[in-house]
Design brief:
The structure is a homodimer of 219-residue chains. By secondary structure, chain A is an alpha+beta fold. In chain A, helix 1 crosses helix 4. Chain A binds a DNA duplex (30 and 30 nucleotides) through helix 3.
DNA sequence: ATTTATTTTTAGATTTGTCTAAATTTATTT
DNA sequence: AAATAAATTTAGACAAATCTAAAAATAAAT
């Protein structure tokens, strides 16, 4: 189904709000999208007529099967682009969201699947959110802080919670990035620092503080 | 200057037509953009009011300095994305244009400059057209067929004229891609075949026919 | 130099997505 | 349960980008 940019934004927002909060209503959506409640009503009618959501006047609304499927496609595009921007172009966390908001509307499925492939099918985006696969399936990967990763178990770096320039500088120095394969060789109890190995990089030691802010998931 | 997608498409089209043909008029532009002459007139007024082109009713129009600058920015984005799609994602020539038409409207200059950097500042896109740099400057690189490259002179693969699946398969096999560093070690006069060296690949021999369809530019 | 043909512009309508203000429905209070 | 408050929808307007059909200007032809 060919959707306009606006329609896509509404669908994606409804999906995201449904994930987080119990009930999504007109006002909360209007607030989230920074628009008026009247605009929401207009779009709800339109999406209903396109059979993407269930909607009964004054009673509320909810994405149906088809709507969910569309939402997942958009979210997949958004998160793959975010991953690309951080992992390949080296952009900073805070900046990638807005750019991905634009890139996500380019809908060629060949493009997206090739991008996915090129990025080696990442499962989690730089903010730690899961990336739906081609079929809309989301892996349920539990992330953990690097400090909680058992010794000698290899894992993939998925996100970093503290994104200060100082943190980024240090990660860069060690060659740690989103998607890096990582393994803890030894933990020093004294200060919580860890001796680690990043694939294709020399061994090194990072502080307990860093280990607390780096998140990984098991392979 | 923030431009709408439509405004960008008009500006880019005017620029492209001005490159190719002597005089651009309302009808030819309407024809090129697959729209009506009336729409062209409307947009000309708008672009004039934004001071991006000179326009006098019934007399014709032309991009001014500012308009040219905007056009070059859009073309830069378009061609960098085309390069990315072919060189990194391995997409085929014919397919990249339409996708780049969409990607080109994402206008973050940080994104584009980082992409440029990531691609190692390509000078020519997969169709053989030059890519403007950050300042809008276009390199005047004369391409030549690989068969005309002097022995032992290293060059960069810029485009391929015959894009059949068979050709693509062969290039893939040899590891020849857009941006590859290439050098001719020996030319066999008998059949025009060439012994070549692609950076980081073993030496190999390609046919005269292939050498005629692969284009390169000097480093 | 008129007439005819072509090109360009205007006038007015349409679609999409938005808005404000008023009306309606549902929820909450006393 | 009547009154008040809050949420939602409708009505009507607007800007952007487009269209068709008619009018105006320029170019070409006899």
């Amino acid at each position: 189904m060919k959707l306009s940019e606006s329609e896509e934004n509404y669908i994606k927002s409804i999906y995201n709000l449904q994930e987080k909060t119990e009930k999504v209503n007109t006002n909360s959506l209007a607030n989230f999208l920074n628009t008026s409640a009247a605009s929401i009503t207009d779009m709800l009618k339109k999406l209903k007529s396109k059979k993407l959501l269930e909607y009964k006047k004054y009673y509320g609304f909810r994405l149906n099967e088809a709507g969910n499927k569309e939402a997942l496609k958009i979210i997949r595009r958004h998160r793959l682009w975010e991953y690309f921007l951080v992992a390949k172009l080296g952009m900073e966390w805070e900046k990638v969201h807005d750019i991905a908001e634009e890139l996500e509307h380019v809908s060629s499925s060949e493009l997206i699947n090739k991008l996915d492939n090129y990025l080696e099918n990442p499962k989690i985006d730089p903010h730690g959110d899961p990336i739906p696969d081609e079929k809309g399936k989301i892996a349920v990967l539990k992330q953990k802080a690097l400090k909680d990763l058992p010794i000698k178990q290899s894992a993939t770096v998925s996100s970093v919670s503290n994104q200060t320039p100082e943190m980024m500088e240090m990660l860069n120095h060690y060659g740690i990035g989103i998607g890096s394969q990582i393994k803890v060789l030894k933990a020093f109890e004294f200060d919580g620092s860890l001796q680690i190995k990043i694939a294709k990089k020399p061994e090194c030691i990072i502080s307990g503080m860093a280990a607390q802010n780096i998140f990984v998931y098991d392979n």
